[in-house]
Design goal:
The structure is a single chain. Helix content is 24%, strand content 29%. It is built from seven helices and 13 strands. The radius of gyration is 17 Å and the shape is globular. The chain starts with a helix and ends with a strand.
Length: 280
C-alpha cells in the first residue's frame, strides 16, 4: 500500500484513483478488449519466456519501465502502466511472468486482485513458490499467468473459484493466449476473442517448424515468433483493425538463465525502440 500512496503523492492524485487502477481488471470485468500471446521454451542452454502485450493504442503513452529495489526482496525489472504496481517482467532471482487476460465470469472481492498477484510473483524467490503463494491467497478474478524461472515454468490459469496448472509439454514449452485451455468445472467463459485459439494454434505451429530445423532455437528465432502477421490484423503481431481496437504495444523476451530481457516497444514486426534489461 505504501507504494500506491507514494504514486498518489507524486502524481497529485487521490489514493483511491491509484487503488482503482490496481484493481481495474476486477472493476472493468467483461469490458476489456486486450489480447496477448505468451510462450515459455526451455532449451538445453536457455529458459526463454516472452509475450506480446496487446491493448488500446492510446495507452501506449502510459507504458512505463521501472526498476524496484526493496530490502530483503529481489530487484524487479517490470514493464507496466502508469499507476500499476504489478505487471510483466522479471526479478534478480530469474523469476519471470507474462500475463494473459481471460474473460470468465465471477468475482470474489475477498481475494487478491490480478495486478497485485503479478507483484507477488515478482517478489518471489522462485516460480514454484510464486505459484504456491497465489494458490494460498486465492485470486479475485480470472486470468492466465505464465510463471517461470531457469528450472521450469507453470502456466497458472485461475478464476474467482478455481485454479489449474498447465505443465510444460513434451517439447519443453507452454503456450497461451486469451481463453482457458483446461477445464474449470462450473465456470462460465463466454467467447470474446475468436482469434485467441488461432493465435495459440499458430504459435504452436511456428515452434514446431523451428523443431524441424533445430532443437535449440536462437534468441533471434524465438523473438521472431512474435513478429508473425498471419491472420492480420488479429495476428500474434496484432494491428489496430478499427479505431479503439487493440494493437501490440510491446514485446518482451526474457532469458531466465542469464536474468536479462529485451523489450521492443510498438509492434515487434515494426519495432519503435529496443531496451535491454539486466541486473548488472
Amino acid at each position: 500500500m505504501a507504494q500506491q500512496v507514494g504514486i498518489a503523492d507524486a502524481s497529485g492524485r487521490d489514493i483511491l484513483d491509484i487503488v482503482a487502477i490496481n484493481v481495474r481488471t476486477e472493476i472493468a470485468f467483461g469490458l476489456f478488449t486486450d489480447g496477448c500471446t505468451s510462450l515459455y521454451w526451455k532449451t538445453q542452454k536457455r529458459a526463454l519466456l516472452g509475450q506480446n502485450w496487446d491493448w488500446m493504442v492510446k495507452q501506449k503513452q502510459n507504458i512505463a519501465l521501472v526498476t524496484i529495489h526493496q530490502e530483503g526482496l529481489p530487484t524487479i525489472k517490470m514493464v507496466t502502466e502508469a499507476g500499476l504496481i504489478g505487471k510483466i517482467g522479471l526479478n534478480s532471482n530469474g523469476v519471470g511472468v507474462c500475463f494473459n487476460a481471460i474473460r470468465a465470469k465471477g468475482l470474489d472481492t475477498s481475494r487478491l486482485p490480478v495486478h497485485l498477484g503479478l507483484r507477488v510473483i515478482l517478489e518471489s524467490p522462485s516460480a514454484y513458490e510464486a505459484v504456491e503463494r497465489l494458490e494460498k491467497l486465492g485470486m479475485a478474478s480470472s486470468a492466465h499467468l505464465l510463471i517461470a524461472d531457469a528450472s521450469g515454468a507453470i502456466g497458472l490459469e485461475f478464476t474467482s473459484t478455481t485454479f489449474a496448472r498447465l505443465q510444460i509439454d513434451s517439447h519443453h514449452r507452454i503456450y497461451h493466449s486469451n481463453h482457458l485451455l483446461v477445464d474449470h468445472p462450473g465456470v462460465d467463459e463466454p467467447q470474446w476473442l475468436p482469434d485467441s485459439k488461432l493465435r495459440v494454434d499458430r504459435i504452436k505451429d511456428l515452434t514446431a517448424q523451428l523443431d524441424a530445423k533445430s532443437t535449440q532455437p536462437s534468441w533471434a528465432e524465438f523473438s521472431n515468433l512474435f513478429e508473425d502477421e498471419v491472420n492480420h490484423p488479429t495476428a500474434i503481431c496484432r494491428s489496430e483493425g478499427a479505431p479503439g481496437s487493440a494493437e501490440t504495444l510491446f514485446n518482451i523476451v526474457m532469458d531466465l538463465e542469464e536474468k536479462r530481457a529485451v523489450l521492443r516497444l510498438g509492434r515487434p514486426c515494426q519495432s519503435e525502440e529496443t531496451v535491454h534489461l539486466t541486473f548488472q
